[in-house]
Write a structure and sequence with these properties.
With 208 residues, the chain is of the alpha+beta class. It is 48% helix and 18% strand. The chain has 2 domains: 50 residues, no CATH class; 139 residues, Beta Polymerase, domain 2. The chain has 11 helices and 8 strands.
Length: 208
């Protein structure tokens, strides 16, 4: 900022949103020079709105995308199963709620996310949490997601929770996928304890 130039509160707010995106923390406003009373007044004037405690968006313009909300509030969590299947094109229908995997001790984190985005959580042991973790671009937003092989292994792990059509379509789509990595598929399946169950099905599909 040039010496002698003083931004008004709305200019400061706009500058913060331009820099940080569609959702910002209260602490970001305070760091930029606003006071608690300034933030309260801007809310009262309808210039900004509280998304949830400590987070704000501009009142004008489009609602923040769910992907943007996830990037802010999903401090722990990896996109998995149904949402990952849709991401990789293994399922034609977008799930009604985001499916994420979190460590078993992070149920409170899930509740925080569920206040702003519809989410279904799968809980895993810590040692299995990062297996196959990568990132993907969802509607322009980069989020953590399990890779193809971990996603297929999860289909077997959570077989009873998946619709038969989704399960079968996913496996056939994976077999046809040029980007599949069968070595990683076997490695993950052994670590997750689903190798025998998976190979009974996959060998038929791969050799069919």
């Amino acid at each position: 900022m040039k010496m002698g130039v003083r931004l008004n509160n709305r200019d400061i707010v706009n500058k913060v949103f331009d820099t940080l995106g569609e959702i910002v923390k209260k602490s970001d406003f305070l760091f930029a020079g606003l006071k608690n009373q300034d933030i309260y007044t801007l809310c009262e004037q309808g210039y900004i709105e509280r998304v949830k405690k400590g987070y704000y968006k501009l009142s004008v313009g489009n609602e923040p995308k769910e992907e943007q909300l996830l990037s802010k509030f999903m401090t722990q969590g990896i996109i998995c199963v149904e949402s990952a299947l849709y991401h990789y094109g293994y399922n034609d229908f977008a799930p009604r709620e985001w499916t994420i995997t979190v460590p078993r001790s992070y149920s409170r984190t899930v509740k925080v996310i569920q206040e702003v985005v519809p989410v279904k959580a799968y809980y895993v042991q810590n040692e299995m949490y990062h297996l196959g973790e990568t990132t993907g671009v969802f509607n322009g937003v980069t989020l953590p997601v399990y890779d193809r092989e971990r996603t297929v292994c999860d289909c077997f792990k959570y077989r009873t929770k998946l619709d038969n059509e989704i399960f079968n379509k996913a496996l056939n789509a994976y077999v046809a996928d040029q980007k599949k990595n069968l070595a990683n598929l076997s490695k993950y399946a052994k670590e997750m304890g689903v190798y025998a169950k998976m190979m009974n099905v996959m060998e038929v599909l791969l050799n069919g």
